[in-house]
Design brief:
Rossmann fold, 2 domains, six-stranded parallel beta sheet, 19% strand, alpha/beta
Length: 471
């Protein structure tokens, strides 16, 4: 079985979010199941530096092949579109590149071309697209007969790739597809909309999010399309790379540990507190956040609930960047509460590992969350997740309610409805549980015993590929 992944980012080469983690980890997990996956992505400057073999040209670009970090990469090398400073989608001033439609339409055309023609004697059995940046490949593929079946994964439906209506001729899109049943979206060109109508199957990154997407509250205007294609939509939980995220062999933390050596975790807690300038608080939990600082992530609610957290004697360490007003507010909280609140604006992979290994409880109060990876890392590291009951958060964390406590299976804390008051209540419950040392350690062991790897989900994707080919 051969699969062609088409993505706009892939860890560890280029990363802005969870999509990159999936694109980097899932092909490795599939390889263990006999699925040979190759990953098509743009040759951004950081990726172009990998070099690679020239595999020919088409559509004014070159294709290069290189194997790096165990992944077979196919680099779409068009310097006019991708060899530029800034990020994959934003310029150095944080604005969308004005030609993003042309850039990712070109990547999508390349994906459709390679799906049909293959590379040398390698020809994919299935094309696996990810998010709006490559979704149009399904439209290009369907415009001509033949070609392999196509699967589209929605990582976050809030990002849709919507552009002006005069683009179809310039992008080489079929004119008859600019309809409500095609890639037209409220009079504009919808990249994700086109993929949703043209792909053979659709997955998203958790069963909970798959259910939510059929409602106006979560579907972001595409709930009707999702509902119409309900039979072809499935939620498959993301996993994590359990070799990279492994507290027993993590080079980024001062003390390695596992579920049988939890007392060693105290060394990491001390190191985390020192790094964030936090006072020792052995009798109250050290809460942590690793997140984009946005309203979607519910971090404005956390600021509102902060007095309640501090009243319990707890402390807070935050890593993240995002909305300027939230960055200012968290900096202000750290200034107002020295020794109790510590904030690092930005992102550091080693520091995020230390936070997972040292925090007692990880806060993820998102208003919506397709899957979430940070709570999966937290489970792996015994940093009990406190999460909003939405999307993949609700699917992966077992709330410490009375039934779960009696059954001895709780792994964290959930709150609902998603508002400041219930979040504060959950913080209180976490503080109460932390005071019971035996209970807390039991919950930590439960969390660390949970399989958050790609093993089960990769097997499901392999089954979906086989089902598509058989159909």
């Amino acid at each position: 079985m051969k699969a062609l992944f088409a993505v706009s980012e892939c860890a560890p080469f280029v990363k802005t979010g969870g999509l990159a983690d999936v694109a980097g980890a899932l092909p490795l997990a599939l390889a263990r199941l006999g699925v040979e996956a190759r990953v098509l992505m743009p040759a951004y400057p950081a990726v172009a530096a990998l070099g690679g073999e020239d595999l020919g040209g088409f559509d004014g670009a070159r294709l290069r092949g290189v194997r790096a970090e165990g992944i077979d990469l196919l680099l779409y090398d068009d310097p006019a579109l991708f060899a530029r400073p800034g990020g994959p989608y934003l310029d150095e001033g944080g604005r969308d590149w004005p030609d993003n439609a042309e850039r990712f339409a070109a990547l999508s055309r390349a994906a459709a071309h390679l799906a049909r023609e293959g590379v040398g004697d390698w020809r994919p059995d299935v094309l696996h697209l990810h998010d709006w940046q490559t979704a149009l490949a399904a439209v290009y593929l369907r415009a001509r007969p033949g070609g392999p079946p196509c699967l589209l994964t929605i990582h976050n439906i809030a990002f849709q790739g919507v552009f002006p209506p005069d683009l179809p001729p310039r992008l080489g899109l079929p004119a008859d597809g600019f309809t409500p049943s095609g890639y037209e979206f409220w009079g504009q060109v919808g990249f994700l909309k086109g993929g949703l109508t043209a792909a053979d199957r659709i997955t998203t990154v958790s069963p909970g999010y798959a259910r939510e997407l059929t409602s106006p509250a979560f579907g972001m205007g595409l709930e009707g399309v999702i509902a119409e294609r309900r039979a072809e939509v499935e939620g498959v939980l993301n996993g994590v790379d359990d070799a990279v995220w492994n507290p027993a062999a993590d080079p980024h933390i001062p003390a390695a540990y596992d579920a049988d050596t939890l007392p060693r975790r105290a060394v990491n807690r001390e190191a985390l507190a020192q790094r964030f300038g936090l006072a020792r608080s052995p009798d109250a939990p050290l809460f942590g956040v690793v997140s984009r600082l946005t309203r979607q992530k519910g971090l404005d609610m956390l600021l509102d609930a902060l007095p309640r957290l501090l009243d319990r004697g707890a402390s807070l360490a935050v890593i993240g960047s995002g909305d300027a007003d939230l960055e200012r507010a968290f900096r202000g909280a750290a200034s107002a509460h020295p020794g109790r609140v510590g904030v690092v604006i930005g992102y550091s992979e080693p520091l995020s590992h230390l936070l997972q290994a040292g925090a007692d409880c990880l806060l993820v109060p998102s208003r919506f969350e397709p899957c979430g990876l940070t709570q999966l890392y937290a489970l792996r590291y015994g940093a009990l997740p406190l999460v909003a009951r939405t999307g993949g958060l609700g699917d992966t964390v077992i709330d410490a309610n009375p039934a779960a406590m009696q059954a001895g299976c709780a792994t964290g804390f959930q709150f609902s409805p998603i508002a400041e008051g219930p979040l504060g209540d959950a913080i209180d419950r976490a503080c109460d549980a932390f005071a019971d040392v035996a209970l807390w350690e039991t919950m930590q062991r439960n969390a660390m015993a949970q399989d958050v790897s790609w093993t089960v989900s990769a097997a499901r994707y392999a089954d979906i590929y086989r089902e598509l080919c058989a159909a």
